[in-house]
Design the sequence.
């Protein structure tokens, strides 16, 4: 209990050691850029290349560069958003709960594609950097590319990867997945919302699940299932294999 309380205090400590004017400016700017990016995304008929996370990331990145604002200072300024990441991930269980009868009915037909997709995506990514003879630390980091950020950072640390780099790779994976998934779905003529959701959640984690929720609650529920099971499976298996 004491350890958990100390961990919570450590997580909250940046909030009361901040310049509050700077912190609120960072929060408002981040939220404002994202909302405008989202509005643009829907205004232009959800063009995959204009995904809100892609646009807002580019705008904020260039903004920090031209304003000469230190990235780590900005990161501390948006600590509140980071703290909300965990609860937001847990909240994805709501659409999953609403679809439990369907999940029970499908059974192993749901589990098989999650395990296959969740294994294939990181294996291909790892193989690409292995063939290029990159450092082992980067290879281990690539293995966590398809699971949600909190799990990816912890798992990367356990297997000899770099937690901070894992977070960047995970976010890029999610953005690429959410950007190109609609085209792949059209190309493969995949009409099943179950299949769409499982693919988005298993490979593109939270960002893919967010995209799935914009399709329908059913698609979002199956994306949540893919996100959760693939994350748990990967986080348990990789330390056993590489720790």
Sequence:
């Amino acid at each position: 209990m004491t350890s958990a309380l100390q961990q919570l205090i450590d997580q909250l400590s940046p909030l009361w050691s901040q310049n509050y004017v700077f912190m609120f400016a960072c929060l408002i700017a981040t939220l404002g850029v994202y909302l405008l990016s989202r509005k643009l995304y829907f205004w232009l008929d959800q063009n995959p290349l204009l995904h809100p996370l892609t646009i807002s990331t580019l705008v904020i990145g260039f903004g920090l560069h031209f304003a000469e604002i230190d990235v780590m200072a900005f990161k501390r300024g948006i600590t509140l958003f980071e703290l909300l990441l965990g609860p937001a991930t847990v909240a994805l269980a709501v659409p999953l709960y609403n679809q439990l009868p369907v999940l029970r009915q499908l059974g192993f037909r749901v589990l098989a594609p999650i395990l296959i997709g969740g294994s294939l995506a990181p294996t291909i990514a790892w193989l690409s950097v292995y063939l290029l003879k990159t450092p082992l630390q980067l290879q281990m980091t690539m293995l966590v590319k398809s699971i949600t950020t909190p799990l990816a950072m912890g798992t990367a640390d356990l297997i000899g990867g770099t937690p901070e780099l894992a977070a960047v790779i995970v976010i890029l994976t999610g953005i690429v997945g959410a950007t190109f998934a609609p085209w792949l779905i059209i190309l493969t003529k995949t009409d099943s919302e179950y299949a769409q959701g499982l693919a988005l959640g298993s490979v593109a984690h939270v960002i893919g699940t967010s995209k799935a929720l914009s399709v329908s609650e059913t698609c979002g529920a199956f994306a949540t299932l893919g996100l959760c099971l693939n994350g748990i499976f990967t986080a348990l298996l990789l330390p056993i294999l590489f720790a």
